[in-house]
Amino acid sequence: MASLSLQHIDKIYDNNVQAVFDFNMEIKDGEFIVLVGPSGCGKSTTLRMVAGLEDISAGKLFIDGKDCTRLPAKDRDIAMVFQNYALYGHMTIYENMAFSLMLAKEDKYVIHEKVMAAAEILGLTAQLNKKPNQLSGGQRQRVAMGRAIVRNPKVFLFDEPLSNLDAKLRGSTRREIKLLHKRLGTTMIYVTHDQTEALTLADRICCMSMGHVQQIGTPLELYDHPKNLFVASFIGLPPMNLFNLEVKDGKYYVEGIEADLPDRIVKGIKDSGKDKFVLGIRPEDIKLGGDFVIDVTLNENTGHFTLTHGKLFGKTSCAKFRHWQNFEIGEKVNVSFDEEKIHLFDADTTDALI
Ligand code: ADP
User: Fold this and answer.
1) SS3 of 176, please?
2) Which atom of ligand 1 is nearest to the CA of 15?
3) Parallel, antiparallel, or unpaired: how do β-strands 276-281 and 343-346 relate?
4) pLDDT at 92
5) By three-state DSSP, how is residue 349 classified?
6) Residue 126, SS3?
7) What is the pLDDT of residues 141-184, one digit of tens each?
8) Distances in whole angstroms, Cα of residue 354 to Cα of each of 115, 190, 266
């Protein structure tokens, strides 16, 4: 188990591409941290610098208070689980899990105990004599985790471990990883581009874009109080609806349509002294009944909720209603907004204002 301190870390690759800019984060012992963001935002590079697989160009990395910035990967006591499992095809599952301990010349009885214990935790006991190609994708990913567990590392790193699994297995394996963390209590850092994985797994999320940290916080903090437009639109599915808002001659225009706004928003506008904004409304914060109108273009019933797509203030938007709603294409549905949940962003800086 370990705490980590990442201080002012930059990564500049040999071709002068800067992948990570001034990354700062304090990670507590036993925390589950998820680095999330779109492809190319620098998540894997950050993880690989923690692992020691990439040099740190500037800044410092401390593990349990010890400066590990230049420490070779093999001396960091960190285990990494990759998306492609990287199992040895000619070895049995047992041998795959035992391999690193055998290399370390661990006693064979100790190895046996550790492999059997990890297999038990991961439900792989009946598969130990099989070869990787006899296992499903989900089982193979569990073997990859087993290989990490037997080493009893200080920190687990996961690089998009669920990407190669189908949707159903992704869900069940995700839950297994969460339970594994509860059981082992080891510090984990997990990289994904999938905001659902981030929200469901993390104690704290670090959301990144173009090499820069955008926000660090609990899943609920990022969901309810996104710091800027990037986080607001990246976290949440379907994404937050965004509308341009302008103030002209003391009147408010949403996508060019004059509208009355709640006092809370009006106060935010006045306090900022600005005149161009973006309003954000999550699909579930749109309520049936009210003075605003959605011009329905598509209605999707999923059983326990309905996604109603249509034009709101003339802009394609999505509302999420409870239960089964039967709206026809072309139907005009009256709606209102949960006023406490409306977000206001500065159109220039993209920062949240309230
Ligand atoms: P992510 O994991 O968020 O998808 P990466 O950390 O893999 O992003 O990549 C971040 C940026 O660094 C990208 O622009 C990518 O092209 C670049 N990059 C990654 N690896 C290398 C490398 N070995 N050499 C040069 N540029 C790289």
Assistant:
1) helix
2) 25
3) antiparallel
4) 96
5) coil
6) helix
7) 899 999 999 999 999 999 999 988 888 888 988 998 999 999 99
8) 52, 30, 11
Cα of 243 from ligand 1 centre, angstroms: 32
> Is 1 a residue whose pLDDT tops 80?
no
Indicate whether 310 pLDDT > 90.
Answer: yes
User: Do the Cβ atoms of 245 and 279 come closer than 8 Å?
Assistant: yes
Share of the chain above pLDDT 70, in %: 100
Dihedral sign from CA coordinates of 266, 272, 275, 277: negative
Structure tokens at 106: 């661990």
Q: Which residues contact 171 (CB under 8 A, 6 or more apart)?
A: none
How far, in Å, from the CA of 189 to the mean position of ligand 1?
18
The protein residue with its alpha carbon nearest to ligand 1, atom 15, reads 40
User: Measured between alpha carbons, how far is 270 from 354 in angstroms, rounded to an integer?
Assistant: 11
In whole angstroms, give the CA distance from residue 45 to residue 163.
Answer: 17
Q: What average pLDDT does the segment 88-116 reach?
A: 95
Phi, psi of 297 (to 5 degrees): -110, -20
* Helix (H/G/I), strand (E/B), else coil: 13: coil
Q: What is the pLDDT of residues 212-235, one digit of tens each?
A: 999 999 999 999 999 999 999 999
Q: Is the pLDDT of residue 242 over 90?
A: yes
DSSP state of 239: P
Does the pLDDT at position 84 exceed 80?
A: no
The one-character DSSP state at 125 is G
Q: Hey, is 196 helix, strand or coil?
A: helix
Residue 345's H or E segment, with its range, is strand 343-346
Residue 286: CA count within 13 A, CB half-sphere: 28
Q: Is the dihedral of CA 85, 91, 93, 97 positive or negative?
A: negative
Tokens, residue 59: 């800044």
End-to-end CA distance of the chain: 38
Ligand 1 centroid to residue 275 C-alpha, Å: 38
Q: What angle do CA 339, 345, 349 make, to 5 degrees?
A: 175
Quickly list H helices, the chain: 43-51, 93-103, 108-122, 137-149, 167-184, 195-201, 219-224, 229-234, 263-272
Q: Whose CA is nearest to atom 27 of ligand 1?
A: 13
Measured in whole angstroms, how far is the alpha carbon of residue 341 from the centre of its chain? 22
